[in-house]
Amino acid sequence: MSRFNISKTVLKTERVVVSPRAMPSSAAAGPITPPKSEAGPSLTLEPSASDATLMQWAGFGLMCIFAVSGYANEFALRYFHVKAYISTASWVVLPVLLVLSGNLLRGLRDVTGRLWLFFLLWVTLAVPFSVWKTGSVTLLLNYVPHGWIQLFYYAAFLISFRHCRRFMYFLIASNAMLLLDCFLFGSASEGRFEIPDSIFFANANDLALQLLISITQFMYLLYQRQVWKQVLGACGILIALMYMLKTGSRGAFLATLVLAIVSVLFGKNRIRLVLAGVPIALAVLIFVPSSSFHRVTLIAFRPETLTVRDMADASAVSSQVQRMALFRLSLTYAITHPLFGVGPGQFAVAASGDAAKEGTRPNWLGTHNSYTEIASECGLPAFFLYVAVIAVTLVSNFRIFRRTAHLAEYRDLSALASCFFSATLVYAICTFFFHIAYSSYLPSIAGMSVALRLGTSPLLWSSRPPKLSASTI
User: Fold this and answer.
1) What single string gives the DSSP state of each residue in 29-40?
2) Closest by CA position to 211, among listed 184, 177, 188, 187
3) Which of 24, 55, 363, 397 is deepest in the core (most CB within 10 A)?
4) Using CA atoms, how far apart are residues 436 and 206, in angstroms rounded to an integer?
5) Which residues have CB under 8 Å from 376's CB, separation 6+?
C-alpha cells in the first residue's frame, strides 16, 4: 500500500474550512489546489483512534468479513455441502452493531442517505395499493434487511477515508474469489457463460454485472505505485473482462464500451490506458468465442431486420423482442398508475392477470429494466428518488476524482472516487437491461460513496463549497 503525504493533523469536526481567497474560481468544475495552513493540506477528515468506538470497529470488521462471506458460502456448499453461515450471522449482528455504534443516523447527514430514506418510505406507501399486498410485504421484509439498509451500514462503519481504502482491499479479495469460482465451476449453457448451481450467479446477466463491477474495483490497483499491484490489477481486469464477455450480456457489453470511453476521456494517464488497452483487447479477441461477440452486437439492430443464422440467434432475437414488449408494458403501468404503481415486486402478477383477462398465456416475467421496474411497481415519485440517488452518487464521485486527479498526496482518494464513479456508471447502464432494483448493488455502491463524502472536505464534492474560516483547519 502506498503511503502518501496527508497531514497528521487530526480534525475533530467535519467542518473543514478555508478562506474563500484560497479557492480558485474554477473549484466547482476542475482540479483544485488544496488549502494551505501551517499544518499542511487537509482535505480528508480522519478520526482519531478515540473517535472510533468499539462497536464501530466491530461493525467495520464484520463488514470486511461480510464482503467475502458470500463466496465462503459458495465454496462451503460445493465442497462440504453445508453453508458457512457467516453471512447469516452478519445479518443478525450488523443491525445490533448499527444501533450500538452511535452512528445509526450518520447516513442521513448526506443528501444521498435522505433520498434513500424517502425512497423506502414511498415504496412502503405503495404496498396498500398493490395488486397482491402479501407479495409486496414479503418483498419488503426481505429487501430492507438484506439490501436497502446496507447504505446505512457503510455510512456508519466506514467512518473515514482510511476505512474506505482498507475496505476496498477486501472487495478486491472477494473479486479474486469470484474469478476462482468462474474458473473452477463456470461453464457455457446455450452459448452463454454462467456458474451452474451457484447461489448468486446461475444467471448469466447477474454474473456479467458482478464481473463488471469487479473490474471497476480491480482498477484501484492500477493507481498504486507498486508495480506488482498494477500487474495484479491488470490481470484481474483482463480475466474478469474475458469471463464477462463470455456471458453474452448485451447490457454489460454496452456498459464496458461506455466505461472505456469515459476512462480515456477523463482518466489521468490516457496514453497509458490506451497502450494497456491494446494487449487486453488482443487477448479478449483470442480467448472469447466469436459467438459471444456476435450475440452482443445484435443489440445494435432492430429484430425485424436481422437474419437468423442458428438457434442461438433465434433465442437472442426472441429475447430482444420480448424485452421490448415488457418495456412498453411497464411504461404503460407507470403511466396508468403514476403515484403508487401496481405494487412493489408485482409487475409480473399484474401483467399475468391482464393477460389472463385477455385470454392469452401469462409469461410471469419481470420488466427486464430496473428503472421501469420501480416506475411501474412503486410509482413515478419512487422512480425519481431512485434516479436521484444514482445521479448524486455519480456526480459527487466524479467531482472528487477530478478535483484530486493532479494532487499527488491524494492519489488514493482520487482512485477510490474513480472506482466508485465507475461502479455507479456500469450499474446505471446495465440495469437498463435487467431488473435488479431491489438488490443490494445500489445501496452498497451509494453507501460507500456516502462514506467517502463524509470522510472528505465539502471542497471536493460540493457544487457550492461552504465558506469556512481558516482558524478551524
Assistant:
1) TS--PPPP-TT-
2) 177
3) 397
4) 9
5) 330, 331, 333, 334, 337, 341, 342, 347, 367
Bridge partners of 194?
187
**CA separation for the pair 86, 72 (Å, rounded):** 8
Residue 145 sits at the vertex; the CA angle it makes with 144 and 148, to the nearest 5 degrees, is 45
| Phi, psi dihedrals of residue 374, rounded to the nearest 5° | -70, -45
Closest CA to 151 of 387, 417, 442: 442
Reported as a single tens digit per residue, the pLDDT across 408-462 is 888 899 999 999 999 999 999 999 988 999 999 999 999 999 999 998 888 888 8
According to DSSP, the residues that pair with 192 across neighbouring strands are 189
Cβ–Cβ < 8 Å for 446, 112:
yes
What DSSP assignment string belongs to 137-192?
Answer: HHHHHHHIIIIITHHHHHHHH--SHHHHHHHHHHHHHHHHHHHHHHHHH-EEETTE
Query: How far is it, in rounded angstroms, from Cα 268 to Cα 411?
Result: 11
Q: Give bridge partners of residue 188 from the DSSP assignment.
A: 193
Task: Return the bridge partners of 128, or none.
Answer: none
Alpha-carbon distance of 104 to 358, in angstroms, equals 49
Q: Which of 469, 456, 465, 471 is nearest to 42 (CA)?
A: 456
Helices (runs of H) and strands (runs of E) counted in the chain: 18, 2
DSSP string, 259-309: HHHHHHHH-S-HHHHHHHHHHHHHHHHHHS-HHHHHHHHGGGS-GGGPPP-
pLDDT tens digits, residue range 167-199? 999 999 999 999 999 999 999 877 788 999 888
Answer whether 400's CB lies under 8 Å from 335's CB.
no
In this structure, how many other beta carbons lie within 10 angstroms of the beta carbon of residue 314? 12
Please identify which residue in the block is written with the cell numbers 443491525: 95
Please say whether the beta carbons of 243 and 182 come within 8 A: yes
Q: Which of 164, 66, 226, 132 is nearest to 423 (CA)?
A: 164
DSSP state of 14: S
- 3-class SS of residue 195: coil
